[in-house]
Amino acid sequence: MDEITPRVYQLSGIWGTGIWGANVFLLVGSNLTLVDTGFKGRSTQILKEAGRLGYSPSDIANIIITHHHADHVGSLAMLKKVTRAKVVAHPADAPYIDGRLPQPGPRWLSKTPLHRLWATTPVAVDILVNDGDELPILGGIKILHTPGHTPGSICLFLQQERLVIAGDVLAHRFRLRLPSKAFTADISQEIRSIKRLASLDFDVICFGHGSPLVHKARPTIISFAEILESKYQRVR
Ligand SMILES: [Zn+2]
Ligand SMILES: [Zn+2]
After folding, report:
1. pLDDT tens, 93-136?
2. Which of 65, 86, 175, 221 is most buried (most C-beta within 10 Å)?
3. How far away, in angstroms, is 51 Cα from ligand 1 center?
């Protein structure tokens, strides 16, 4: 578990590469908020980490889901059962989380052992959040709707921490990169969302996969967005 700020902790997969699912974030306020849950089978580890900070499962009041992919919602069913936390997500991804729609994925996935991890247990979403909404957590978390990777992907702007949790809108594995194209619904929308993300005024940015950017985070994202835009315009 890495302390990013005194109120934000990151629980990584192995080397933050996403093995065993995406990074999970613990936000410590008057109660606890989880951001994402990793693949299924990760709930015990998550609750143990919360316990190391002195919290019990019932202290987890909210679970915010950045998007519906199984490496982010896999352990949601078990965590909700144990904690009775409220599940927060965007309406465009809610049908994939509550089981009205199946988890989409590339066709080759069904031929690999990963397909078992990819099938998730449906969980009802309790609170739907839209672009511009503010959650009363850590002094106000602003929701930025950043579709592209999935239709209902969201970024969380923790204004008091000057920190963004970007989900899979971008990844930072050894270098800044786009999310896997095979798992991304609409790449041109995705690039527009990265540009929007760059307009936020933050100092630190955390990702679903890889390590956080803590130095020159915003200028780095701005120049990455500019490079992407010119590259994309060229191919178009
Ligand atoms: Zn992911
Ligand atoms: Zn994803």
Report:
1. 999 999 999 888 777 777 777 777 778 899 999 999 999 999 99
2. 65
3. 25
* For residues 16-45, average pLDDT: 86
Calculate how far, in angstroms, residue 136's C-alpha sits from the geometric centre of ligand 2.
Answer: 26
Name all domains of the chain by residue range, CATH numbers in brackets: 2-235 (3.60.15.10)
Q: How far is the CA of 185 from the centre of ligand 1 (A)?
A: 13
Q: Identify which ligand lies nearest to the alpha carbon of 18.
A: 1
> pTM of the prediction?
0.94
Torsion-angle region of residue 161: left (phi > 0), alpha (psi -120 to 50) or beta?
alpha
